[in-house]
Amino acid sequence: MGSLKNILLVTFDQWRGDSLSAAGHPLLKTPHVDALAADGVYFKQHYTVTAPCGPSRASLLTGTYQHNHRSIRNGTPLDARFTNVALEMRKLGYDPALFGYTDISPDPRGMNTRDPVFNTYEGVLPGMSLVCRLDEDMGFWFADLKRKGYTLPERPFDIFLPVKNYPGAEDKGYSYSPPVFTSEDSNAAFLSDSAITYIDAQRGRPWFAHLSYISPHPPFIAPEPYNKRYDAKHVPPAKRAASANEEVSIHPYMQHQLEAMGLGTEEAIACYEGQKIACQDLTGKELDQIRATYYGMINQVEDSFQRVLEHLKEIGAYDDTLIVLTSDHGEMLGDHWMLGKSGFYDQAVHIPLIIRDPRPQADASRGRVVDAFTESVDVMPTILDLFGAAIPRQCDGAPLTAWLEGRTPGGWRQEVHHEYDFRDNVVRKAEGRLNLRSDECALSAIRDDKFKYVHFAALPPLLYDLAKDPDQLTNVAQDPAYAYVVAEYAQKMLSWRMMNDERVLTYAHIHEGLYEQPDDRHDHL
């Protein structure tokens, strides 16, 4: 009989929501992830509420929307007044351990600017104890590789360069060849080994581990045999307009975004996370190989994570551990002529979420697939609720407990919202290209089963009729026949913002003493 004793919060970085076989992918097979879903609950319509890495993790770990926490870009500090899942679990006696990274930039107020924490945006979430660091520095992993006899490159990201003269690579795309390191020596394997050692070191004491894998984040390169797991000839085609020029004509933002990726220039996209990918090659074998390699990367990190799950079972801890498996954001993977996680399309924000609740109350829901809309801000409230902790008023999400227990909560959300701030505080590219002030470089999207509406602070809106256009290729916002839809969804978005403004002191009242109204937001769940 299971119990709630330990917590394993796992993220695969840049993992698209459609890229697992449980989601019905036509090529990719993810047997270990599928098995976890069959033993837990798979939330099929799960979305991050923002991107890229830093903002998305800020929302995931604080349970707050971007317009409240305002950590809007990688490197934007997270206000120290916000609590988070690690700090709240410390109140229950846990010492949350971090394996990897959280990309949380610290609040600089009251700190010396020469403090080494300001050397990188890849800061550690307050409340997390850093057990094994793995970020762009690669230091801990590189030390392990050096002990194993590897020759380390001067530039850390060069460790991902493909080996030269790899057999069979002649007719393949650039990302077909593997790196110099083996799968057993990969950063994913390194993190899994560290987590297993940590779990054993607890000797039965309750623990909280946040295991943050970097794969399948680019560079798009996979060690053997994963580099050739999928044939590029069989990958599903990218969903995009007939040409890049047609894609940019949709909206000024798309013109800016694709220009930033090299459209209209003769030079390659500036070394996409270590790989030179020319924009014109995205129509041919390079893009197909990137997609095939991406799938292999998912299998590689999946297999590595499976060793952690098997170890939990071997030591008798599996049925005492809450397991949450998700991502920070998705990957465009050539759809809409884009790579990365910028913008408003589903591929950048639709992500997997699988939760394995070991309690007997969850037995009836094992293998359940939830089609309701869920958001990344729901993860922190879920963990706290399951462990009997109070959910802070700052949290914009709601606990998923009812879904885990086989119930269907009343009054659940009928849509998802996600935001993206595309200002550039350093170079100001977006501001210059679009002739906008920094505060005007923002968008907010609302999506349900019928429509997706994208509101820009100072640019025209977008509207997609999902029943007729599921791939979101035709903007109908200016079509008079859809004027009522634009108005309706703009009003929905305004109401959502009004109901989800910052509320920490809103429920307090001072008059002959302090009165705080009980939080009733989740009573119906």
List keywords for this structure.
single chain, 525 residues, alpha/beta, Alkaline Phosphatase, subunit A, 8-stranded mixed beta sheet, 4-stranded antiparallel beta sheet
What count of structural domains?
Answer: 1
Q: Share of helix among residues?
A: 25-40%
Instruction: Output the CATH topology.
Output: Alkaline Phosphatase, subunit A
Class per helix and strand makeup: alpha/beta
Based on CA inertia axes, which overall geometry fits? globular
Major sheet summary line: 8 strands, mixed
Number of strands: 16
The rounded distance between the terminal residues' Cα atoms is 25 Å
CATH class division: Alpha Beta
The CATH homology group name? Alkaline Phosphatase, subunit A
Radius of gyration: 23 Å
CATH architecture descriptor name? 3-Layer(aba) Sandwich
Q: Order of strands across the biggest sheet?
A: 4-3-5-1-8-9-2-10
Run of helices and strands:
EHEHHHEEHHEHHEEHEHEEHHEHEEEHEE
The stretches of 5 or more residues where confidence is low (pLDDT under 50) are 264-275
Report the β-strand fraction as a percent range.
15-25%
Tally of individual helices: 14
Let me know the average pLDDT: 93
What can you tell me about this protein's structure?
The chain has a single domain, classed as Alkaline Phosphatase, subunit A (3-Layer(aba) Sandwich). Helices cover 26% and strands 16% of the residues. It has helices at residues 31-38, 53-62, 66-69, 85-90, 139-147, 187-201, 244-248, 252-260, 285-314, 346-349, 379-386, 401-404, 429-434, 483-499, and strands spanning 6-12, 41-47, 97-100, 129-133, 208-213, 269-272, 275-277, 321-326, 353-356, 368-375, 416-421, 442-447, 451-456, 462-465, 508-510, 514-516. The strands form four sheets. It has an eight-stranded mixed sheet. The protein has a four-stranded antiparallel sheet with strand order 11-12-13-14, with helices on one face. Residues 264-275 have low confidence and may be disordered.
